[in-house]
Design brief:
nine-stranded mixed sheet; alpha/beta; single chain; Nitrilase/N-carbamoyl-D-aminoacid amidohydrolase; 277 residues
């Protein structure tokens, strides 16, 4: 069993300016590392959150990567921390679609695992916002669990949060913690974000590490109607919030103890009592 480990989640407001966005990720990740984090989860769309065609232009092959992945690998090496990069745009099956990939880098910067977002978010919101992820993103097909400093870590991205069967599959593969990098909209986030995160933690009896986009995503040309809820947080297997970001850019850090996961699973053995699979 792994030892207790400090982990962090970060919160940024990305737009269509890649260098600006990566500077924010570096700034917040350094803050988490100063507070002792050995693993840091970065939000969905961390490098680019803008017009749909833009993600196609900056997409990189994995695991080879390109300048974006390379910069994050340098950050991991500099700080000697593991990084979970949510929403890294990966070159996809054809020229018109990418993968929304969650990438685990170890402290040497090496790619340890790549999860491709399975559930894609297509919706027309009451405020006039239209999101059609499937038009430019191809779905992944398989759950992914990776070996991290804290133990077995299940990977997911944003809208996956609404599908509990994915997290049960991750637990079945040994996960004791679940990464949920996200760009939850303001409209849904204010009512559902915390509730769903705590539910996943309780039913999976696992830590949840939820990094987040926050605020209004104003583009380089001054336009931008999309807003994200924020409230990045770390939740324990009992459903208690251990650490949470306030408004705006920031980070939150907490200590995860695999022994506590074992105690919770022993005191409420619901995972062993499952009848339907």
């Amino acid at each position: 069993m792994s030892e207790a480990t400090r982990v962090g989640v970060v919160q940024v407001t990305s737009n269509d300016e890649v260098d600006r966005n990566l500077e924010a990720v570096e700034r917040t990740t350094r803050g988490a590392a100063r507070d002792g984090a050995r693993l840091v989860v970065v939000p969905e769309c961390f490098a680019f959150l803008g017009p749909e065609e833009g993600k196609l232009a900056i997409a990189e092959p994995l695991p080879e990567g390109g300048p974006i992945l390379g910069r994050m690998q340098e950050l991991a090496r500099e700080l000697s921390v593991e990084l979970v990069l949510g929403g890294h745009w990966e070159k996809g099956p054809d020229a018109g679609r990418v993968y929304n990939a969650c990438v685990h880098l170890d402290a040497s910067g090496s790619v340890r695992a790549v999860y491709r977002k399975i559930h894609l978010f297509d919706v027309d919101l009451a405020d006039g916002t239209r999101l059609a992820e499937s038009e430019t993103v191809a779905p992944g097909e398989a759950p992914v669990v990776t070996d991290a400093a804290l133990g077995r870590l299940g990977l997911s991205v944003c809208y996956d949060l609404r599908f509990p069967e994915l997290y049960r599959a991750l637990v079945d593969e040994g996960a004791i913690a679940l990464a949920v990098p996200a760009a939850f909209t303001l409209h849904t986030g204010k009512d559902h974000w915390e509730v769903l995160l705590r539910a996943r933690a309780i039913e999976a009896q696992s830590y949840v590490l939820a990094a987040a986009q926050t605020g209004r995503h104003v583009q380089s040309d001054g336009r931008g109607s999309r807003a994200s809820w924020g409230h990045a947080m770390i939740i324990d297997p009992w459903g208690a919030i251990l650490a949470q970001c306030g408004e705006g850019e920031g980070h939150a850090v907490a200590t995860l103890d695999p022994a506590y996961v074992a105690r919770v699973r022993g005191s409420v053995p619901s995972l062993r009592h499952r009848r339907l699979r």
